[in-house]
Specification:
- About 15% of the residues lie in helices and about 40% in strands.
- By secondary structure, the protein is an alpha+beta fold.
- Among the domains are: about 110 residues, no CATH class; about 70 residues; about 70 residues.
- It has a 15-stranded mixed sheet that branches. A 4-stranded mixed sheet has the order 19-17-18-24.
- Helix 3 runs antiparallel to helix 6.
- The protein starts with a strand and ends with a strand.
Length: about 375
């Protein structure tokens, strides 16, 4: 096994699932859970048969109930013929946004979002400038009835709004406020079940989920290939592979003078690319206006933006047997292509589907080229 990696699940595959509707265990045909980036709500789509449901889940119930909460549990219980939800992993807790009743196919389709929706649907004008980011996130979690799992921070949030009166008075969803604070702290924020997480962003040094590709070294085009999934697609953006420049324009309230901070990401001339043609074309420039920032804040913001932009350069998509190992904010390592695609990636989307015939997942990951560096 490669160092600091976790292989895809290889135990005997007898996955099982349980779906609850307002706490009532329901029969289901198909359950799909989509874990997307930490800036968006996870979503679900459930197909339930009309027949065979508990008496409480009648057609009239789905036709009239005003608030429906669901839970999806998936796992590999010791006894696949006799199991409880406590033996499975909770994949999503969410609110139903739409109910569709198909009378000819005799099924319900329920779609909706995880409990991130609580923060998305509620707006606020209070930015709590005297509290730290972690204190604000903890307070909002408890206000919405979620359990906070928060790494403490020390900087008063007002520091991030300094000189920007519009930011203090604007009405915005609570989730936008939480993500704004996460960006300032270089954290990630996401909901898992009934818990709101607020922690430092994952790094390339974290333990990675392994995608292993193998080919015949003597004849890679005609020889055998092997992969721990059904397919593997690689892509890269030559546009983003060019230099990226981020410029942050701000105003120093003390000196009453404007200033700019410029950060550039460029191919590293000291790497193997040094003897090859560099990407063609002018650098892409992204300019941001951030009133009231200090130079240090502007530099931190520029560094984070250039990191976010460059992470879209290289992407992979793979269809794999479903497992519960890879997390929403996980790190993935690709091995075995013998190209620059062999590197660490960050999860951008994991879509899991459980049906009577299979448990599968499609994994999308992204990152920048390993041959790039940030130049100030």
């Amino acid at each position: 096994m490669f160092e600091n990696t976790i292989p895809a699940q290889s135990i005997a595959r007898q996955p099982r699932g349980i779906v609850t509707v307002n706490g009532i265990t329901a029969a289901f045909i198909r359950a799909e859970v989509n874990n997307t980036t930490n800036f968006l709500a996870d979503t679900f789509s459930l197909e339930l048969p009309i027949s065979g449901q508990p008496s409480q889940l009648s057609m009239q119930y789905f036709a009239s109930e005003s608030a429906i909460m669901i839970e999806v549990f998936i796992g590999f219980p010791p006894d696949p013929s006799n199991y409880t939800k406590e033996q499975l992993d909770i994949m999503i807790t969410g609110q139903v946004d739409d109910v569709e009743i198909d009378l000819l196919e005799r099924k319900y389709t329920l779609t909706g979002r995880d409990l991130t929706a609580k923060f998305i649907d509620n707006k606020t004008t209070n930015k709590y400038p005297n509290l730290t980011s972690s204190q604000i996130v903890t307070m909002l979690a408890e206000k919405e009835g979620l359990t906070p799992d928060v790494t403490p921070t020390s900087t008063p949030a007002g520091t991030y709004y300094a000189g920007d009166r519009a930011a203090l008075t604007a009405e915005l969803p609570e989730w936008d406020l939480i993500n704004f604070l996460a960006q300032q702290e270089n954290f990630v924020a996401y909901v898992d079940g009934t818990t709101l997480h607020f922690h430092p962003a994952p790094t390339e040094k974290d333990t990675a989920y392994l995608l292993q590709y193998e080919t015949n070294e003597n004849d890679p085009e005609k020889g055998y290939t092997a992969f721990n999934g059904k397919n593997l697609k690689l892509s890269r953006s030559l546009t983003i592979a060019r230099d990226i420049i981020v410029i942050v324009r701000s105003w120093n309230s003390k000196s009453k003078k404007p200033f700019n901070v410029r950060v550039k990401s460029t191919p590293n001339k000291k790497t193997a690319l040094a003897s090859k043609a560099q990407p063609i074309g002018d650098a892409q420039t992204f300019t941001y206006m951030k009133p009231g920032f200090t130079k240090e804040q502007a530099l931190q913001f520029a560094q984070q933006q250039i990191k976010n932009l460059s992470q879209h350069e290289r992407k992979t998509e793979s269809d794999l047997p479903g497992d519960n190992i890879l997390k929403k904010v996980g790190v993935v390592r690709l091995k075995g292509t013998n190209t620059d695609f062999d590197q660490v990636y960050f999860t951008s989307n994991v879509n899991r589907v459980l049906s009577p015939t299979q448990y599968s997942m499609t994994v999308n990951v992204k990152n920048h080229s390993p041959n790039s560096q940030v130049v100030f």
